[in-house]
Input
Amino acid sequence: MPDEPFRTIIEPFRIHSVEPMRLTTREQRAAALAATGYNLFEVRAEDVLIDLLTDSGTGAMSAEQWAGIQRGNEAYAGAPSFYRFRDAVTSLFPFRHILPAHQGRAAEHILFTAAGGPGLVIPNNTHFDTTRANVEVSGAQAVDLPIPEGLHPAQRHPFKGNMDVAALGRLLASQADAVPLVMLTVTNNSGGGQPVSMANIRAVREVCNRYGKPLFLDACRFAENAWFIRTREAGYADVPVADIVREMAGLADGMTMSAKKDPLANIGGWLGLNDDSLAERCRNLEILTEGFPTYGGLAGRDLEAIAQGLRECTDHDYLSYRVRSVAYLGEALEAAGVPCVVPFGGHAVFIDARGMLPHIDPLQYPGQALACALYAEGGVRSCEIGTVMFGLHPDGTESPAALDLVRLAIPRRTYTQSHMDYVIEVVARVASRAAELPGMRIVSQPRQLRHFTARFAPLR
Ligand code: F0G
Output
């Protein structure tokens, strides 16, 4: 008899140590929201039951990663932990220079301090918030060039994270001198955790070649992206994920990385690049702000955890479970009539809050209203990715973001299927009385990255 695949995709690991979760009452959650100005970043994690705020640094490490932590060598310069880290990184991303950093945004800050600046323009399929902020802090302009399908939550496309290559061509044709580098975010987090195809990376590379521009990957979720290439792009079904990753890297000249995502570490990141003179400038900046280039703001033990995590995150059983379990949540929400970004991405399910709450104007923050309602209902913490996050511009003006989404980001190897079943119930309950949810107004806000600290109030 042929080996029939099982319908149930199990977590390909068992629980090694446990962390208790605290149940709260509806009254306690209402009080927490009022006390924090309806900003979920200000809510204490102990007051959250299922924490889907982010998949960043929140995954469960493996026994081998904890073993690596014991092996960590803390020499200031030239620690063996650094070389194990560098070898693990270059086995997937063979760039000439690998500069460790304490997390992705530190790598971004170094890169754009060295390569950004006033009058310059950085194109990306879609900048993540910290990437955009680091580009803008340098004085440069961050331009998003997603394909049109990427802006329509309900429109299906296997590689909705792709860059609009024609738009990139037009940008470079009109202002090539202003563009120091082109960036591609894999997967496209802000666009819904959507993958970028190898064909698109290759097409972007060709445009870059035409204008002599380097291509950088913001590669936080490279393994999930590679899994989508393997399962959706013609010609890759039999290619091991690690080879797909090397092919992606081979089309680029450098990368920024947060090891808190696919590499399964709780902290860390790096900047990878081939250009010797840019690397020299970046290394000097790194020493100024992160540390000596063989530890870059990390402990040796952190470098070990990343090295081991990089080996684990390209495992096919893990990736199959990972992508399937995210789709499990998404399919159940879709079945419950909740409008979601489809197809489902690699690390999160994105609810279309603007579609779910059409009675709330984008400048009354439907995403923020929904995220607060999910917390109030069942202690589920999610994250607004919409007008609160992207609507405030450097000149102080405000406009609606392209989309108002609420992201349910799934920490890696952390929650079980019954946790997800609970989340499904919470979202469905909120959806059943969506028309009653009030919009929000901003009571106070900083000028940059306002979503972290702004305070809100419900409109009625
Ligand atoms: N690029 C992308 C695509 C990201 O998703 C993130 C972080 C970063 C860069 C910055 O990395 O946090 O290590 O400094 N995203 C997290 C999130 C915070 O919740 O999506 P970092």
User: Anything to note?
Assistant: Residues 316-335 form the longest helix (20 residues). The two ends are 63 Å apart (CA to CA).
